[in-house]
C-alpha cells in the first residue's frame, strides 16, 4: 500500500530554535509510522530569532524538504534598531511606559503594515510555486501551521485554486493572543485581522488547535470540525544528569515583561528572611531570555544575588536543566486571553520527574493538565499564602532528599500518540 503524501507548510524548521519548531518536527518524525509521507515546505533564508543547530540531527534524511526564498522585514528593521528588532521578533515587548520612540514606531509598522504578520510577503510567491508542485506531485492534502498566521493564507489560496484538502493548525490563537493588544493596531487593521481569521476558519476542511479553550473560542466563529491535539513530549536521548545540590527553582524559556509574578518574588524574599538555611541553598535559575522588567522587580525584592542567568541554550541542554533542577517554574499572564496557552515546555516538564510550580489565570488549560497528571501545583495570582506553604513544603522535602513528582497518565501526551491522532484526521 503506497503512503499518502501530505504537504506541510511551516515557517519554523531546524536550525530554528525555541518552542515553535518542536511540534511539526516531531509530527514529521512519526508520521511515516502511520503510512503517511510528509513533505515539508519552508523558507530558504529565514531570519529566525533563535537558532539551535542540534535540532538538524533530528530531521531524517528520508524526509523531502522543499524551500523557497523569503524576504524578511526584520532584517531591514535591524538597520533601524538591531536590539528592538530582535526582541520584538522573539515576542518580547516591553511595557508601554518604557518603550523607546523607535520601538513604538516599529510596533505600529509591524501591526498595521504587515497583516497578519511580518511574513505576509511570502504568501504570493509560495502560492505560485506550490500550485505547480502540488499538481506535479499529485498531492491532495496540505497542512498549514501558524504562527506566523500568514502561512494560513497560503493554504487559503491553494484551497481556492486547487480544492485540496486543507488542515489549518493553530499553535496559538490569532486575534486573541496577548501581544495583539500591544501592536498599536488601528480600527481598520483590527477588522482586517478578524476578517482574515474568520475566512481561514471557515474555508479550511479541518481546524487543529493545541488547547481546549481555543477550541471553544473558534467554535463561536466556525461550524468546521475542530480537533484538540496538544503539544507533547518525546523520548529524548539525554545523558544522565545529577540533581542540583542547591534548592534550585528554574524557569526554562522566555520570561516576558507581562509574565512577572510579583507574588512569587515576594514569597521567595520572605522565605529567605524567615526560614533558617534557605538563603544558603536557594537559587533562581533562568534558562532563556528574561525581560528587563522582570529582572528589575526581582532586584526590588532583593533577590538578584540568588539569580543565575544562563540565557538561551540548545533544546538538548534545556532538557538537561529541567531534569537537574529541584523545581520547575511555569508562569502565565493573568488574563482571559492566556487561559488557552499551553506552553510546549509543560509536557517536557511533566516527564522530568521534577515538581512544577505554575502561576496563571483561573480555569486555564495548564491548570487542568497539571491537576489531571499530578505533576505539580497550580496557583492563582491572589494565592500568595498557598504558594508560600507549597514552596516551604517542597523545601522540606528537598532537605529530606525526597523531593520529586508523582505523575499519572502521561503516555497520551507522547509525540507518537499525538501523531497517531493527527494521522486519523489525514
Automatic annotation (TrEMBL):
Pfam family, one: Glyco_transf_4
Positions of the Glycosyltransferase subfamily 4-like N-terminal domain: 109-236
Taxonomic superkingdom: Bacteria
Coiled-coil boundaries: none
Protein name: Glycosyltransferase family 4 protein
Organism field: Postechiella marina
